[in-house]
Design brief:
The protein starts with 5 loop residues before the first strand and ends in a 5-residue tail after the last strand. The protein is built from four helices and 13 strands. By secondary structure, the chain is α+β, with helices and mostly antiparallel strands. The longest helix has 19 residues. Helix 1 packs across helix 2 and helix 3 crosses helix 4.
Length: about 240
């Protein structure tokens, strides 16, 4: 590997890890999974072997994955230099061991999203299905078939609580975001934005192309387990239905 990991300090007790330079050498799904492996290792004290004097569990209090990046928050700023060295060593080991087969080690959790697409009498639930179809030279039915047959990976949660950025959209469905975003996209809207697809967990402004709707609850503040249904590393499938259960 000729690429390098870029790490810099963003506050007195936080480091930002940028792995985007590896995009030319590792495909997106594998690269994002390596980020998730690094997150898990940092939170589980796996870097002590490289720097025995540094106890990650006593320092790293939170880790937030992004698109090909990871932010680590620490208890204090006293050992950030050791943390940076440990992360570089750990990353090199993960890349060497997992760059070619990391997909096989991903979570087995798969979430099915029942979705009513904007076909026929349900056009109001997917008002932009025709736009996506026209942009890609497809019929609306072909868009639905392509969108619902893929297996997606949750890259990270962002934008709003419970909003999962999903990788795995076929290039046949890539569609630019709207030039003029909507003031309000309904909760549960299934949409495409550029090279990604996702579901709006709550009413909000947005510029993605709406192709369908789901009633699945993506964010529940009162949940005793986790407020977010989807987690980084999960697999997601959209199941085309004509009515809600």
């Amino acid at each position: 590997m000729s690429a390098s990991l870029f790490i810099f300090q963003i506050s007195e007790n936080a480091l930002f890890v940028d792995a985007s330079r590896y995009k030319s050498e590792i495909n997106d799904d594998q690269l994002q999974h390596l980020i998730l492996q690094l997150e898990k290792s940092a939170l589980n004290n796996k870097a002590d072997a490289f720097h025995p004097s540094f106890k990650l569990t006593n320092s790293v209090v939170d880790a937030v994955p992004g698109m090909f990046n990871l932010t680590l928050y620490c208890e204090n700023h006293l050992k950030l230099d050791l943390l940076e060295q440990a992360l570089i060593s750990l990353w090199e080991q993960l890349v060497a061991q997992g760059a070619t087969d990391s997909i096989s080690h991903q979570t087995n959790r798969e979430i099915i999203i029942p979705t009513i697409y904007g076909l026929g009498s349900h056009q109001h639930l997917g008002p932009d299905l025709g736009i996506v179809a026209k942009h890609n030279g497809l019929s609306p039915e072909q868009v639905v078939a392509l969108h619902s047959q893929a297996i997606y990976q949750v890259y990270f949660i962002g934008f709003q609580p419970g909003f999962a950025y999903l990788g795995g959209l076929t290039p046949q469905l890539y569609t630019p975001r709207k030039k003029q975003p909507r003031k309000c996209i309904p909760k549960g809207s299934v949409a495409i934005g550029g090279e990604q697809t996702g579901i709006y967990p709550n009413d909000s402004p947005g510029g993605w192309q709406i192709i369908g709707h789901s009633q699945i609850q993506l964010f529940d503040f009162d949940s005793h387990d986790s407020p977010c249904l989807l987690k980084s590393g999960d697999k997601v499938r959209f199941k085309a239905v004509t009515q809600y259960a």
